[in-house]
Amino acid sequence: MATNDDDARDQPRPPLPRRQPLKLLDVHEIAAMYGVNRRTIYRRIQRRQLRARKIGGMWYASLSDIEHDHEEGPVHDEDDEGDDEASACG
Q: How confident is the model over 51-76, as pLDDT tens digits?
């Protein structure tokens, strides 16, 4: 005796909606996009003002995260004295 569950399993599922590919930008690309020093971007990552992920030793942020974070506050160069990238995000 077939149940409603058996009938549901026999029917094909509708295709899943297509996702846009995730566009990742590295620190140099983000800095160039905003016209700031890359240390400013490392600093924003360290302060959690920019969502980013470390892949293979390099920091990347998705274009959608950059746009979202930029809405919260503009990206501008800060005083870069005394900083270096190694200490910024270890």
A: 999 999 999 999 888 887 766 655 66
